[in-house]
Specification:
Layout lengths: L1 H17 L7 E6 L5 E2 L4 E3 L7 E13 L6 E8 L10 E8 L15 E7 L4 E4 L4 E5 L5 E2 L2 E10 L5 H4 L1
Antiparallel strand pairs: 1-11, 2-10, 3-9, 4-7, 4-8, 4-11, 5-6, 5-9
Length: 165
């Protein structure tokens, strides 16, 4: 009976350890100046990962004011890659819908600030300390009323690097 109890406790501890969040999770936000986001201003995010390479899901988050004059936000997300680590370069253009056809904001928020997130397609391969770049590609010189831009990376729990590259 005592051995059974110890076996159950050990199993519970192992299960809890397997459910612990990964140390390759990464998120960071950049605040946009109050005068707007210049077209030439590329935001750089520097992932700090426990592993040299991690594969997973990347989400882009935007916080904007209620005065944002457009229904969407076009951004370009790029990673330069790292040939030594076998991480391919990648560039994606993303159209984030911020309001519906009736002009209601899709994001959530309090007061006059709204936040919207969008998960990017496919598996992203990030390398530790290799930057990730985000820039808007709207047809204006300076984009008004964007308050913050962030990236959130959640690593996959399984998968071999050769399968995903």
């Amino acid at each position: 009976m005592r051995h059974s109890l110890l076996a159950i406790v050990a199993s519970i501890i192992l299960c809890l350890g397997a459910c612990a969040p990964g140390h390759n999770n990464y998120s960071s936000f950049e605040t946009i100046p109050s005068y707007g986001w210049p077209y030439s201003d590329t935001l750089s995010f520097l992932p700090r990962l426990d592993d040299s390479v991690a594969r997973g899901t990347l989400a882009l988050t935007v916080r904007h004011s209620a005065n944002y004059p457009y229904a969407n936000l076009w951004v370009e997300v790029s990673t330069p890659g790292d040939s030594v680590l076998g991480v391919p370069a990648r560039t994606d253009t993303v159209n984030m819908r911020l309001c519906d056809r009736n002009g209601r904001w899709l994001g959530r928020g309090l007061g006059v600030s709204f936040q919207m997130s969008d998960t990017l397609d496919g598996v992203y391969v990030l390398a530790d300390s290799v930057p990730l770049h985000v820039r808007h590609v709207m047809r204006v010189d300076t984009l008004p009323d964007i308050e913050q831009v962030g990236v959130i990376f959640i690593p996959s729990m399984s998968g071999k690097s050769s399968e995903l590259l």
